[in-house]
UniProtKB/TrEMBL annotation:
Protein name: Adenylosuccinate lyase
GO MF: (S)-2-(5-amino-1-(5-phospho-D-ribosyl)imidazole-4-carboxamido) succinate lyase (fumarate-forming) activity; N6-(1,2-dicarboxyethyl)AMP AMP-lyase (fumarate-forming) activity
One GO cellular component term: cytosol
Domain Adenylosuccinate lyase C-terminal intervals: 362-441
Annotated keywords: Lyase
BP terms from Gene Ontology: 'de novo' AMP biosynthetic process
InterPro entries (alphabetical): AdenyloSucc_lyase_C, Fumarase/histidase_N, Fumarate_lyase_CS, Fumarate_lyase_fam, Fumarate_lyase_N, L-Aspartase-like
Pfam families in the record: ADSL_C, Lyase_1
UniProt KW rRNA-binding keyword: no
Record flagged with keyword Transmembrane helix: no
PANTHER family: ADENYLOSUCCINATE LYASE
Length: 452
């Protein structure tokens, strides 16, 4: 596996994805495609139907002689022919004559990889569904939890944690939509032969490809060219964008779990060790794994773009590269999703600390609240100038914002002291944060219901 691991990886459930990506599963996927090809050709009288049935029956990985396969690898120097030869041996001389009839290596390998990727993709969607469910619960639960909104690394105006979670949900729903929309382009069947023009099969080859597509439940490529890779880049891009959404969550958790913030923390089990040197360490293990694997995943798309532009009808350099890129992308995404599901399910929110941090500037974060009151009377520009002068005086002196405001005759003429104190409380200026959190949680649950 090409993903980045640490001890935390061993505690997470991959939902069977790693087993789908091992070498034994790869060979079985090749056999599944060869079996579908034989069955389609038998039904269409391209090969004897009885022989096709025997091929289907023998297309099980346990029937392959792997020692013999390794022996042949040493001689022929081809990545697929040794597999074919041992499969022919497993089927017998007469039946073996009809294996891989009119197909080329990449027809089987690329279709098989798409078949495997489709199975992995379904598990990816199950992870996304559960992550969204976790976030919907969190958005509802923390809809009224006041915290400091931040822009450019500094306090802006107050929000609620539920609103922050709602923004994560919104982006993840976009990624889910992309993931579903790309399925029809990436999970396809190709059976066009050496260059994709059905040279050895003619018209019946198109019928065979369509039937194989039905059997594998993956649409046929309109032009089954081995040199079309844009759909693979698109899929890797979709994974990278999904990873980016989860990377953003992980970065927020990583940063705001620092002691100086102390607003959230990852779930922790007693006995977990953070450092071999420092006994006190409780590290953000889930977050750091998401961040590292996401950064590696981003790098794969640029490599794909360069290789996809290779000339002519096929190029093994591109085929080999995309075989590796697809596999690595699936492995990286698996590690990211496993961690993100547990992170969003076990995240601990420190409401008290969020409240204290929101009040750390003693009400100055609510300057817009006061400015907008004056804007309705004297216009936005003059109101901004007025409140700006007062806010900067508080920022650059040892005076509290409250005292600066109360010392202003213009302010005292507009508000009583109690009214002003209420306007400085963060909880009184969170806009529609709670409503947006609840609304997005509700929408999220509706989308999840469609994935059942």
């Amino acid at each position: 596996m090409s993903a980045l691991y640490d001890s935390k990886s061993k505690t997470l459930d991959d939902r069977g994805i790693k087993e789908l990506l091992n070498s034994r599963a790869k060979y079985q996927s090749w056999l599944d495609v060869e079996a579908a090809l034989a069955r389609a050709q038998g039904e269409l009288a391209v090969i004897p139907e009885e022989e096709a049935k025997k091929i289907v029956q023998q297309a099980k990985v346990e029937n392959l002689d792997f020692e013999k396969m390794d022996e042949i690898y040493q001689k022929v120097g081809h990545g697929f022919v040794p597999f074919l030869k041992v499969f022919v041996l497993a089927c017998g001389k007469e039946t073996g004559k009809y294996i891989h009839f009119g197909a080329t290596t990449q027809n089987i390998q690329q279709t098989a990889q798409n078949l495997t990727a489709k199975k992995v993709h379904e598990r990816f969607l199950s992870f996304v569904k559960d992550i969204l469910a976790n976030l919907a619960d969190l958005a509802d639960k923390e809809a009224d939890t006041v915290m400091a909104g931040r822009t450019h690394g500094k306090h802006a105006i107050p929000i609620t944690y539920g609103y922050k979670v709602a923004t994560w949900i919104s982006e993840l729903l976009m990624s889910l939509e992309r993931m579903q929309e790309v399925e029809k382009r990436i999970f396809t069947t190709m059976m066009g032969g050496a260059v994709g023009a059905f040279n050895s099969t003619g018209e019946v080859g198109i019928q065979v490809q369509n039937r194989v597509a039905e059997l594998l439940d993956m649409p046929a490529m309109e032009i089954p060219s081995r040199n079309i890779s844009s759909q693979k880049i698109e899929y890797i891009n979709c994974l990278a964008l999904l990873a980016n959404n989860l990377h953003k969550i992980a970065e927020e958790v990583f940063q705001t779990s620092i002691e100086e913030f102390a607003e959230v923390s990852e779930g922790f089990s007693k006995g977990t060790v953070g450092s071999s040197t420092m006994p006190h360490k409780i590290n953000p293990k889930l977050s750091k794994g998401i961040i590292a694997n996401a950064q590696k995943l981003y790098s794969l798309t640029s490599v794909g773009y360069a290789s996809s532009a290779r000339p002519f009808e096929a190029d093994s350099t591109s085929n080999m590269l995309f075989d590796g890129l697809m596999t690595e992308s699936l492995e990286l995404m698996t590690e990211i999703l496993m961690r993100a599901e547990e992170l969003t399910r076990t995240l601990t929110v420190n409401r008290k600390q969020m409240g204290q941090n929101a009040n750390i500037n003693q009400g100055i974060d609510n300057s817009e609240y006061i400015m907008m009151y004056f804007a309705n009377r004297i216009g936005k520009d003059q109101a901004h100038e007025l409140v700006y002068e007062l806010a900067i005086e508080a920022e650059t002196s040892e005076k509290s914002y409250r005292d600066v405001l109360l010392a202003s005759q213009t302010v005292r003429q507009s508000f009583t002291e109690n009214e002003l104190l209420e306007m400085l409380k963060p909880e009184n200026y969170v806009g529609l944060s709670a409503k947006l959190a609840h609304d997005m949680a509700e929408k999220c649950q509706s989308v999840i219901a469609t994935l059942e």
